[in-house]
Every structure is written in structure tokens, then in C-alpha cells.
């Protein structure tokens, strides 16, 4: 199975490891190895460059992972951030009730209440998947991790943030005042989020501690149907999977301008759909057939969203199209909620016009994107396995190889490695046949191999081998940087 093959490379070569493995670990937690850390950082850097360049008033900020209880009263998470849970009377295993209903009854469970799910489980006598025992009534379970901050006596209840977004909302007023005092203003956070998922499944897909890259754009709601650059993107075709296509499974290719006319989606929202698609197709090189925007119904949308299309990529190892992120029109839900709960005024005054800004959120799960890159770009060609990662996210840009363990070759190779390491992440390898060294780099996605051989001593050229085509060319040492 593809998921086993990718997990095998990921573990064997150092992309990811189960967390706390020598103690047996807990499901839903993974660590990043040396390759995974490099690759994740590169994905985050590419994300940062792409989205923060959309507007000179978009910036990155950072916020704490632990926040007091009142934050989550204001955000609505304490009340609404729940999943339906059922427990086995006999073995006490716990399961996501909606997933069980969907799997056992082959129907959608989105939007069903706890009572309705309990009724379906009883009526259809769905047994415990582990021991066959009777399942108890469904209860709503809050997915946040609760903490106690401080010593006993004066301790305060706090939570690990379930999304990075809240940090941007809490710091909005200060950032607005410190920056230009203008809208739109964008605040991005890349960092950890925590959810006590009931049944983390599918390996790396549903985690309990994971990474998000989110951009909150605060804007004047009266300008939602305009964007200064809409003319530039109006002819771009977007891959849309609207609600009405659910039964056919077809993806429509719709021009940005038609999306506005026929679907009534506001221009500010459409502009960001285009930029998201550009990130996946042009920066990450995903084949376009694997990408789509999926419209969510009112029942499926998160409690804070008014317009919500998910970003999906076809991921074979996970069994089909999978959610990588979403474009969420959160209205003034968050700022108004925090304003009410904290008593702090979060409205702004732009040239005499007072308003609570609305929020458009671009939200992505870093780990899922990471896994899908490995999945989509992995190929087993029989005599070699390779991951054709885009060079921007490959852990190493190139391998540097002295053809043989001879001092004169090693000196040159080390010199090249040292000089180019200032600009690129490189891997120096002098062990084994050159063929094996190429294969080892192919398997971890390194786009280029730089080989120093006896001709290098004579004419100061090296061989550069390209990973996917395996083509080789000779290049002057001073010009390597232009060719990788
Ligand atoms: N701030 C909005 C928000 O958090 P979300 O749809 O709940 O929205 C955003 O999460 C993204 O975070 C998802 O599209 C997904 O990529 C990622 N994500 C959510 N839950 C996750 C989990 N348990 N494990 C890994 N990634 C997750």
C-alpha cells in the first residue's frame, strides 16, 4: 500500500518519527526528523513569501500556545468546539460517533445532533468496532486540551490553542495601531495547534498536536465585493467542486469573473481563491487534476464561517481528495465575540467611519500538506524510488559527491560544499558507488547531484545530474549555483 511505502521512507530516512516512541508513544503525535524539519521549514518559508507578498500591509506575528479560559468563551470554542463521542459499555473504547455512522450506515452524518446519532446507533445496532459490545449514548466532547496554570490554590484554567488564529484576533488592535492604521491588514501566524481528537486516524492526517499556517485578513465589510487587482486575475480558471456536484463528483473549471457573476461569490474572496490555487499549482507544482476547492454546506461549515470552501488535494495514500486548508469568511464573529467577552473595544475608526472589521481567513494544515507532497511526488520505478519534490521544498538542494575517496577529489568537493552551503542546504556523501549515492538522494527528493571527478582536476568542471530526467551535464565550478 502506498501509505506503508511512504511511511517506510519517512521513518527510515528521517522525515518523521512517532513521538516518545521508546515509551510506546500516544497516537496522534509525531516528531520531525532531520529531513522533515528541513522540508517543513521550507514549505513554511514558501508559504510565508507567497501570502505575505499579496499586500504590503500583511505581516507575520507570533502568539502563545496557552491562553486563558476567557479567550475561548469569547471565541466560542468552549461552547462549540465539540465532536460527538460514543463509548463502549464493555471495553470503554471511545469513538467518533459521526465517523461510525458514516462508515457503518454509508450515509452522511454531518449536522446530526447527538440524540439523532444515538438513535441511529441504537436502531441499527452498531456494535463496538473493537469488541462488539454495546455503544452508549452519544455525548458532545470538547476537543481542547485543558491545563491548570500556576500552583494549586491560585491556579487558573487555561487551554492549549486549538487554532493559531486566536492569537491574531487578540493582538489585532495593537497591531492595527502600531502599523499603518489601515485596512485591509493581514496577520499571519505559523505555529502549533492542539486538538484532543477522539480517534486520530490515518497516520499523519489527523493529529493531536499539529502545525498550522494561517493568515487573518481584517477588512472593511463594505469593500468585500472589490479588490484592486481583480482585473488581473479575472480570466484565471479555478477548479471548483460546488455542493451541487457532490453526486457526479465532477470538478468545474470556472473563470474568476464567472464565479463572481454566476455563484455570487464576492471579489475579495475570489482573489484569494486564485492566489491559493496559484500556490498549489505554480509554487508546489501539483498536477491540476489533483487540486480542487470544495464547497461546504451550512451543516459542514465551522461555527464561525459564512462562506467556506476547503482546499483539497487528491492523496492516494489517504484514499482520495483530502482537506489541506480552507478559505473562511469569518465575518466579525471573532472580534465581536472577543469585544463582548473582554469588554475591550475592538472597533476601528477609519476616516470617521467606525466599524468592527470582518475577517477573511486563509488556513492551512502544514503537516497534511507535508504528507501530501511526499504522497503525490513519490514514484517507485522498480530499480529506483524517487520523490520529485519541487526544489523549493526538497530538504537538500543538491548532493555533493567526490567520485572516489581520493584526497585531491575530496578537497575540491569539500570546498564546493563549504562555499555553496551559505546559500543552499547540501548533503555531502563520499561513501559507496556513485550510483548508490544518486539513488539515496533520489529517495529523499534531492533535485541535483554534483559530482567531482578526475576531469574536475583538469578543467575545473563538475557533473550536475538532474534527479527526474537523470540527465547529466558538465558545468564550471563557478557556475554551479546558476544550475541548481
Ligand atoms: N482557523 C481555522 C481552522 O483551524 P480548521 O479547518 O479546523 O480551521 C485548518 O483547520 C486546517 O488545519 C485544516 O484544513 C487542516 O489542514 C489542519 N488540521 C485541522 N485539524 C487537524 C488535525 N487534527 N491534524 C492535522 N491537521 C489538522
How does the SSE layout of this entry go?
Blueprint (H helix, E strand, L loop, with lengths): L1 H12 L2 E3 L11 E3 L1 H19 L5 E3 L5 E3 H6 L2 H4 L1 E6 L6 E3 H9 L8 H10 L15 E4 L3 E4 L6 E5 L4 H6 L1 H7 L6 E10 L14 E11 L10 H4 L3 E5 L10 E4 H8 L3 H17 L7 E5 L11 E9 L4 E12 L1 H10 L5 E3 L2 E3 L2 E8 H12 E3 L4 E3 L10 E5 L4 H14 L5 E3 L5 H10 L4 E5 L1 H6 L1 E6 L5 E5 L8
Parallel strand pairs: 3-10, 12-14, 22-23, 22-24
Antiparallel strand pairs: 1-2, 4-9, 5-6, 5-7, 8-9, 10-11, 11-19, 12-13, 14-15, 15-16, 16-19, 17-18, 20-21, 24-25, 25-26
Helix pairs in contact: 10-11
This protein binds glycyl-adenosine-5'-phosphate.
| Rg | 25 Å
| Terminus-to-terminus distance | 33 Å
- Count of DSSP H/I helices: 16
Which small molecules are bound?
glycyl-adenosine-5'-phosphate
Q: Approximately how much beta-strand content do the residues carry?
A: 25-35%
Name the CATH architecture of the largest domain. Answer: 2-Layer Sandwich
Shape: globular
The poorly predicted ranges are none
Describe the sheet with the most strands: 9 strands, mixed
| Coarse structural class | alpha+beta
Indicate the CATH topology of the largest domain.
BirA Bifunctional Protein, domain 2
In CATH terms, the superfamily of the largest domain is Bira Bifunctional Protein, Domain 2
Domain unit count: 3
Q: Strands of the biggest beta sheet: in what spatial order?
A: 3-10-11-19-16-15-14-12-13
Under CATH at level 1, the class of the largest domain stands as Alpha Beta
Strand segment tally? 26
What is the residue-mean pLDDT, rounded to a whole number? 95
* Helix amount: 25-40%
Amino acid at each position: 500500500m502506498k501509505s506503508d511505502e511512504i511511511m517506510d521512507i519517512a521513518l527510515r530516512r528521517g522525515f518523521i518519527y512517532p513521538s516518545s516512541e521508546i515509551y510506546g508513544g500516544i497516537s496522534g503525535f509525531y516528531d520531525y526528523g532531520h529531513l522533515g524539519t528541513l522540508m517543513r521549514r521550507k514549505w513554511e518559508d514558501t508559504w510565508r513569501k507567497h501570502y505575505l507578498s499579496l499586500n504590503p500591509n500583511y505581516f507575520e506575528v507570533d502568539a502563545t500556545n496557552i491562553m486563558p479560559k476567557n479567550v475561548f468563551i469569547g471565541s466560542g470554542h468552549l461552547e462549540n468546539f465539540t465532536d460527538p463521542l460514543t463509548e463502549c459499555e464493555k471495553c470503554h473504547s471511545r469513538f467518533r460517533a459521526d465517523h461510525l455512522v458514516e462508515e457503518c450506515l454509508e450515509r452522511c452524518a454531518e449536522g446530526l445532533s447527538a440524540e439523532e446519532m444515538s438513535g441511529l446507533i441504537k436502531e441499527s445496532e452498531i456494535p463496538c468496532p473493537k469488541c462488539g459490545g454495546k455503544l452508549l449514548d452519544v455525548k458532545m466532547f470538547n476537543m481542547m486540551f485543558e491545563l491548570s496554570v500556576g500552583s494549586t490554590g491560585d491556579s487558573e484554567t487555561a487551554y492549549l490553542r486549538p487554532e493559531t488564529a486566536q492569537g491574531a484576533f487578540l493582538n489585532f488592535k495593537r497591531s492595527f495601531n502600531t502599523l499603518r492604521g489601515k485596512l485591509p491588514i493581514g496577520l499571519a501566524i505559523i505555529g502549533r495547534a492542539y486538538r484532543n481528537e477522539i480517534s486520530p486516524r490515518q497516520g499523519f492526517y489527523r493529529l493531536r498536536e499539529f502545525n498550522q499556517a494561517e493568515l487573518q485578513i481584517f477588512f472593511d465589510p463594505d469593500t468585500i465585493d472589490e479588490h484592486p487587482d481583480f482585473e488581473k486575475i479575472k480570466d484565471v480558471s479555478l477548479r471548483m467542486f460546488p455542493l451541487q456536484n457532490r453526486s457526479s463528483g465532477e470538478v468545474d473549471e470556472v473563470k474568476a469573473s464567472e464565479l463572481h457573476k454566476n455563484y455570487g461569490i464576492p471579489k475579495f474572496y475570489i482573489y484569494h481563491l486564485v492566489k491559493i490555487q496559484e500556490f498549489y499549482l505554480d509554487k508546489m507544482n501539483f498536477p491540476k487534476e489533483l487540486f480542487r476547492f470544495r464547497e461546504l454546506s451550512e451543516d459542514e461549515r465551522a461555527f464561525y464561517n459564512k462562506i467556506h470552501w476547503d482546499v483539497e488535494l487528491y492523496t492516494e495514500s489517504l484514499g482520495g481528495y483530502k482537506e489541506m486548508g480552507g478559505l473562511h469568511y469569518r465575518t466579525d464573529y471573532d472580534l465581536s465575540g472577543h469585544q463582548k467577552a473582554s469588554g475591550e473595544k475592538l472597533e476601528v475608526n477609519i476616516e470617521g467611519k467606525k466599524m468592527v472589521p470582518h475577517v477573511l481567513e486563509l488556513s492551512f494544515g502544514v503537516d497534511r500538506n507535508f504528507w501530501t507532497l511526499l504522497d503525490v511526488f513519490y514514484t517507485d520505478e522498480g530499480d529506483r524510488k524517487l520523490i520529485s519534490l519541487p526544489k523549493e521544498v526538497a530538504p537538500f538542494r543538491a548532493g555533493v559527491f567526490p567520485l572516489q575517496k581520493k584526497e585531491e577529489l575530496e578537497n575540491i568537493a569539500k570546498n564546493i560544499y563549504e562555499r555553496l552551503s551559505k546559500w543552499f542546504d547540501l548533503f555531502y556523501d563520499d561513501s559507496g558507488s556513485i550510483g548508490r549515492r544518486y539513488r539515496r538522494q533520489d529517495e529523499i527528493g534531492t533535485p541535483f547531484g554534483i559530482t567531482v571527478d578526475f576531469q574536475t582536476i583538469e578543467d575545473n568542471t563538475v557533473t550536475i545530474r538532474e534527479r527526474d530526467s537523470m540527465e547529466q551535464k558538465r558545468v564550471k565550478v563557478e557556475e554551479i549555483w546558476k544550475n541548481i
